[in-house]
Specification:
This protein is of the alpha/beta class. The chain is 32% helix and 28% strand. The chain has 4 helices and 8 strands, in the order E-E-E-H-E-H-E-E-E-H-E-H.
């Protein structure tokens, strides 16, 4: 994997278990450059959407026990990205903190609302039609919830994701990742000085 020079608010995370080995670098003040390799092409595609539409520079390298299944790779990669995001945010001074919107992809429409609150909580209301796994090696569509929930929890954010309408599973998942990306792009934007909380800390 090629090296990327990152600047601005940067977070890194290395995560090693008996099941996976993950390395993540993330710059909140990037240009959307992505270098993603998890061994799961569909998941790589979703993480590429996260970086590009978030305006983040994102490097992800994961090797996992895909001969068992894709669950460990998806979970540990998502946790590492969330931890890198939390590190990159630092004390969160000046950030907008809140963001929300509705995000379409063809017939799919997903509603996203998030708060970089320091309090991890996820509401996921995205029923998935029954379909075969996506890509080779296969990505189980049910893992989309686990990926986004793991990322949000590790980043200590409050996140609500709701499917408004949609039939195509690929479109539903991609709209969710793009919506998360665009909402994060808004929420991490620096537009002040102080920490946006009456507590003085997030």
């Amino acid at each position: 994997m090629s090296e990327m020079e990152l600047s601005g608010r940067v977070g890194r995370c290395e995560r090693s278990t008996a099941e996976t080995k993950v390395f993540v670098e993330l710059s909140l003040d990037g240009t959307g450059r992505c270098d993603i390799s998890t061994g799961l092409p569909f998941f790589d595609h979703m993480l590429d959407q996260l970086g590009r539409h978030g305006g983040f520079d994102l490097r992800v390298e994961t090797t996992g026990d895909l001969h068992v299944d894709s669950h460990h790779t998806v979970e540990d990669t998502s946790l590492a990205i969330g931890e890198a995001l939390k590190t990159a945010l630092g004390d969160k001074a000046g950030i907008r903190r809140f963001a929300s919107g509705r995000f379409p992809l063809d017939e799919a429409l997903v509603d996203i609302a998030l708060d970089l609150s320091g309090r991890p909580h996820v509401e996921w209301h995205v029923p998935m039609p029954e379909v075969l796994p996506l890509g080779t090696p296969p990505f189980d569509p049910q893992l989309a919830e686990h990926a986004i929930t793991s990322l949000a929890t590790a980043a200590s954010m409050t996140l609500h994701v709701e499917l408004v309408r949609g039939r195509n599973v690929h479109h539903i998942i991609e709209a969710a990742f793009k919506g998360l990306a665009r909402s994060l792009r808004d929420a991490v934007r620096v537009e002040g000085r102080g920490v946006p909380s009456t507590k003085g800390v997030l």
